[in-house]
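Journal club side-thread
Mid-discussion, someone asked how the predicted structure for our own chain would compare to the paper's figures. Pasting it here so we can look after the session.
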Amino acid sequence: MPVRTRRGFLADLGMGITGMAVGTMLAREGVVRGAESTPLDSVTATHLPPRAKSVIWIFLSGGFSHMETFDPKPALNQYAGMTFDKTPFENPVHSPLHKKRFRSVPSEEINIRDVYPTIFPLQVGFRKHGQSGIEITDWWPHLAKQVDDLCFVRNLWTTDNDHAAENQFHTGRHKLDETQPSIGAWASYGLGTLNDNLPEFVVLGGPTRSDTRESIDALYLGPQYAGIPLSLDPANPLPFAQRYGGQTLQQQHEEYEAIGRLNELSAVEYPEDQALRARIRSYELAFRMQAAVPEAIDLAQETESTTKLYGLDNDATKVAGQRLLAARRLVERGVRFVQVFPSPYGSWDSHQQLRENHTRQCASVDLPVAGLIQDLKQRGLLDDVVVVFGTEFGRTPGLELRGGGNTGRDHHPNGFTIWMAGAGLKRGHVHGATDELGYHALGDGHYVTDLHATVLHLLGLDNRRLEIPGRKRLDIDHGRVIEEILA
């Protein structure tokens, strides 16, 4: 009988199918991730009492205009056509905040994208809505009806003035820095699963391009914590796990079991191989997912009134509606973090024809997002789920002049708006502000990792205690919880 080494025993325990199941159960008990340096609550398996169980993170790629959506600025109409220095306000380009929050790959003398001096008026009207009297522009008639359930943060800022900001919004790091795990990966790593048959971190409609993979990646946390993109094609939601023609479920199970045994043999020799650990886990999960995922995304199970609520009966809103309805079904079944891209890559990027672009884009997501909020509320899920609605940056108060342009706004990371809704948050509330022209986030504002820290806090995780041995995170990576918006 062969001698069984300590290393082999530990590898089999930690890497085998039984070991993976044990690991999942221990994680739920707060043992695996409850190292002495970052103890988890023994009952909840979290650092703090959680306010929320799951997150639906909605990201609109391209950078919507904060002023033409959720932070309207009447001064833009009053001083339209004037340059900044002709208004009674401080010239925002001369503000110390400009240099503090400006970071461009080319020199500042070359890349002057965000300092266009001629004020461009609002391209849409706005009104106060709800009992809270919060101002929203007229492009959001359906969402405006849900305003008393929303919590706006109007003083977010970031530093990347190009579309790598899509990754920065999710990782907290500029493209010139070392990349960090995404917010969804941290949530997955910190909490584990509520449903062994579904992924902890699901992505719908993304990543939008190969160079935005960082927005769902786990990096040094290990690939098992990265987002798993799912297709909403009911006939083929899991292309990587599809059985080939004539193969029975039992045959596939035996195939995966054999592959798992081979992987376990490799794991004995390479116990620290993160990719191998993820591969073993993926085969196990892929088999279980074959029954759970098709059911979870089977929108045909929904009533006609629900599908209409999300706009599935209209071509303009169907894609966004399907993804958001699927997100609701997934969190309902225990998925921790669902990252939704309701629009294609860069579709909100309005360097020209902002009015036409935002009219069309808002109409494609307004009804479905409003339907999601209403649906979560009527099902009691808004007490358990956090909804985040954001974009990588805002748009310039000044008219973009590149190429003779006269109808659009450029990228603007200096101040912009996101909103949140749901568990643990104030409702019908506005926090923070930009200046009269919508240029700078006032005061300290909130860098994007403040948003990360707040979401993790609501899930019961302390972002400062999510440390990995040998991986020192910067202070800016941790952010600070936006206490002012907590209920």
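Post-session note: The chain is about 30% helix and 10% strand.
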